[in-house]
């Protein structure tokens, strides 16, 4: 079993709970309430801030130009596609500026932000990859449950969030992240354990992030 598969299996309970979460079920069948989506998007916009910073550190910490360019391309599409999705939803849901820019953070958002900034500050490639891999792989897994575009909900606020995490380019990026992570599996047991802890905490927080959207909405 690869390093990535080994870590995913070791936190299968939280992983499966996040992928099969009630939030995801309702997003996929189009029954997600606006109050829940609104809470989720406001918190996720704050998540994106640290995530983009982490991608920037990945550009800096990657061992080769070819790897740096992969992160640079993802940063580019994050700044266009993904940001447009947030702006469109913020308009549609009439979310005030203060909530877009400076909301009160839930514990899950604060903990996730702290985890990303800790990984960033290590400037250590396997740690940075561990957080990126969980965030992207777990999203690919829930979005894969949606099947093909014909079976997606019709509202763009739902369908577009699925499309951003269920398309051939996104799946190729996640497969690349997994291989990159496996290729830098630390030989040192102590460092390996640290990477595992980072991975495990990220999976726990993905689940908590969905829990908190449902609880608040
Ligand atoms: C909380 C969370 N995890 C992962 C992603 C996908 O990067 C996201 N947008 N938000």
Describe this protein's structure:
This protein has 217 residues and is an all-alpha fold. The protein has one domain (3-216): Heme oxygenase-like (Heme Oxygenase, Chain A, Up-down Bundle), CATH 1.20.910.10. The chain is 81% helix and 0% strand. Helix 7 packs across helix 8 (125-144) and helix 7 (107-122) runs antiparallel to helix 11. The longest helix is centred in the first third of the chain and has 28 residues, at 34-61. The radius of gyration is 17 Å and the shape is globular. The chain starts with a helix and ends with a helix. The model has no long low-confidence stretch (mean pLDDT 97). 4-amino-5-hydroxymethyl-2-methylpyrimidine is lined by residues 44, 47, 51, 135-136, 139, 206, 209. 4-amino-5-hydroxymethyl-2-methylpyrimidine binds next to helix 4, helix 8 and helix 11.
Overview in brief:
With about 220 residues, this protein is mostly helical. It has one domain: Heme oxygenase-like (Heme Oxygenase, Chain A). The protein is built from 11 helices and no strands.
User: What is the CA–CA distance across the termini?
Assistant: 39 Å
* CATH superfamily annotation: Heme oxygenase-like
Elements, N to C (H/E) = HHHHHHHHHHH
Structural class: mainly alpha
Rg value: 17 Å
Overall pLDDT confidence: 97
CATH architecture: Up-down Bundle
Number of domains in the coordinates? 1
Unreliable stretches (pLDDT < 50, length at least 5) are none
Give the ligands present.
4-amino-5-hydroxymethyl-2-methylpyrimidine
